[in-house]
Amino acid sequence: MSRSTALLPLLLLSTAAVAHDHDHAFGHDHAQTAPATAQTITPQRSPAERNATITAPLPEDQAAMKAHVMFLASDAMAGREAGTRDYDIAAQYVAAQFYAAGLRPGGDEGGYLQKVPLVGYKVADKGSAMWTPTGGQAQELVFGEDFVPSPVPNAKETSLSAPVVFVGYGIDAAQYGLTDYKGADVRGKIVAFLPGTPEGLGGEERAFFGSAANKATLAAARGAVGAVQIDMPRANGRQRPFASLARYYDAQRVTWANPDGTAHAMTPTTPVLGTLSQAGAAKLFGKDWAAITKAAASAKPRFSPVTTRGQMTVASKTSFKPMDSSNVIGLIPGSDPKLKDQVVVLSAHLDHIGVNEGGDGDRINNGALDNAIGIASLIEEAKRFKAAAAPKRTVMFLAVTAEEKGLVGSDYFANHPTVPLSSIVADVNLDMPILTYKFEDMVVFGADRSTLGPIVRKAVGAMGLPVAPDPMPEEGIFVRSDHFRFVQKGIPSVFLWPGQAGPGKAAVADFMSHRYHKPGDEVDQGIDWSQGPRFVSVNYAIAREIADGAERPVWNKGDYFGTLYKGPMAAK
Fold first, then answer.
1. What are the residues whose beta carbons fall under 8 Å from the beta carbon of 58, sequence distance 6 or more?
2. Composition of the chain by helix, strand, coil, percent to 5
3. Could you provide one GO biological process annotation from this protein's UniProt record (predicted)?
């Protein structure tokens, strides 16, 4: 599960996808690879003690799930980081399991693998940035004091000079009372905006509108030629020194590659140039900046766009490092003559975060719960489908790469689907089910947004479980995992998680604090293997209802994401 800076060290997740960018010099929807932090040493047990736990006999269905996790989360897989041979071995394992389960290959050239060309990209040098007021002398925007550059994913060299327009938080959503672009003409200009969102938005809306990538996309749609973010104190008043951004300015980010070897960019004509400090912004906006920052700190900020009297000039270089990875795809063809060409996708990410660069003790991030157990669930769910009558709709089992890099593998698939995109009717995503306790309910993120909701409640209810409300709505989890790449194509989607009733809340908090994205996420951490088949049963029941349902899922009338991404909409 992609790291979400807002959720650590407690609850919860990415992410990635679109909100994990706020703590970097400037975020795209592509994760950065920063130097590893000091590692917490996992308490060590003797090999005999560990082996006794790992090899303890289990019923057949539990043992089958555990066996997948034993392999995928073993030290031999070295954390399954996308772009490594270790990940490639894991992908071959999943392909072999899909074959053994009787799935048809759904990847490239008649195989199970869909090649995903990845590329690492980073700032090649410190570049230069200048501010030239109208009728005045050019002033340097000092690296690390005034400005920190960002890599431009689709260009080796960038040189840009234009006036700057400040647009508040850079959000245009009149239904939420946010019209930061009102009266602004940003064509041919650089847009400057604040990170995050003002108070008052729900969690999903805050995560979505606060995404720097979405802000840049809006700027591009309005004709801006570039964008910069302005660093601001956090809501709790604690401020990271701006100079600390400079320490990691050349950290590598990863996304999928264009045919020319450059990186895919959501806004190819509007490069994100970097981040201005408060001091840097004051150089551009002069005496007006004090009033602007005061307005930003108010409980209900209201902005009027402000255009600088002068031009900002930025020159930078970006370097690229190609790498390869793959998604793994298996299919069960539909049996109904009218519905077989429609596809239900069941997705889970296969990658994890690899090996920490420094520190003592265990440095391998095994990723047993994140997300080897999700992949194990996907494999066992495929077996359930094959053992039963053929589904009416085609069911695709999709194990994606590079989720931890920013939902990259799912984004590649959504832009390079192996079946017609219009044929995909729903995605059900499995990401990091924390199965260390007997779950008493289910949380299905996104169920209230489409007609998948009644389907989910029927299937989960038949298992004797209630569907619980989002236990942490302030975190906007719906927009932070691989299913959201399908949402962005207008496809109704949900993300499943064991609920937090009973012992769940404490168990989730314990995992997130002590083992999430750490070497302690291992097969012997105390997983309750009896919950694995229960989780698979719930997932299977939901997927089966979708696959055999008479009606294609549609978005609820007026749903924000269904409207934004032009998905099929309920009439009423």
1. 66, 529
2. 30, 20, 45
3. proteolysis
Per-residue pLDDT reduced to its tens digit, 442-477: 999 999 999 999 999 999 999 999 999 998 887 788
Question: Burial of 92 by CB count in 10 Å (0-12 exposed, 13-18 middle, 19+ buried)?
Answer: middle
How many C-beta atoms lie closer than 10 Å to residue 569's C-beta? 16
Range of the domain at 329: 61-120+322-564
Q: Which residues contact 454 (CB under 8 A, 6 or more apart)?
A: none
pLDDT value at residue 234: 62
For residue 510, the 8-state DSSP code is H
Strand 493-498 and strand 424-430: the pairing is: parallel
Say how far residue 490 (Cα) sits from the centre of its chain.
17
Q: Are residues 277 and 415 in the same domain?
A: no
As a whole number of angstroms, the distance between CA 515 and CA 494 comes to 25
Q: What is the residue-wise DSSP string for 10-30?
A: SS-----SSSTTTTSSS--SS
Q: How many domains does the chain have?
A: 2
Residues 394 and 508 placed together within one structural domain of the fold: yes
- Radius of gyration for the chain, computed over Cα atoms and rounded to the nearest angstrom: 24
Q: Which amino acid is residue 362, in one-letter code?
A: D
Q: Does residue 9 form part of some domain?
A: no
Identify whether the C-beta of residue 110 lies closer than 8 Å to the C-beta of residue 128: no
Asked whether 112 and 99 are in contact (CB, 8 A), the reply is yes
pLDDT band at 204 (very low <50, low <70, confident <90, very high): confident
Give tens-digit pLDDT for 10-55: 223 333 333 333 332 223 333 444 444 434 444 577 889 889 989 9
Residue that has been written with the tokens 């490639």 in this structure: 88
CA nearest to 198, candidates 303, 270, 101: 303
Q: Verify that 198 and 157 share a domain, yes or no.
A: yes
| CB atoms closer than 10 angstroms to residue 435 | 24
Say whether pTM exceeds 0.85. yes
Are residue 304 and residue 352 in the same domain, yes or no?
no
Q: Is 275 helix (H, G, I), strand (E, B) or coil?
A: strand
Same domain, 204 and 259: yes
Q: How does pLDDT run across 526-548, given as a tens digit for each residue?
A: 999 999 999 999 999 999 999 99
pLDDT digit string, tens, across residues 462-518: 999 999 999 888 778 899 899 999 999 999 999 999 999 999 999 999 999 999 999
Better-predicted residue by pLDDT, 98 or 572: 98
Pairing of strands 343-349, 424-430: parallel
- Collapsed DSSP state (helix, strand, coil) of residue 277: coil
Strand pairing of 442-445 and 493-498?
A: antiparallel
Same-domain check for residues 153 and 98: no
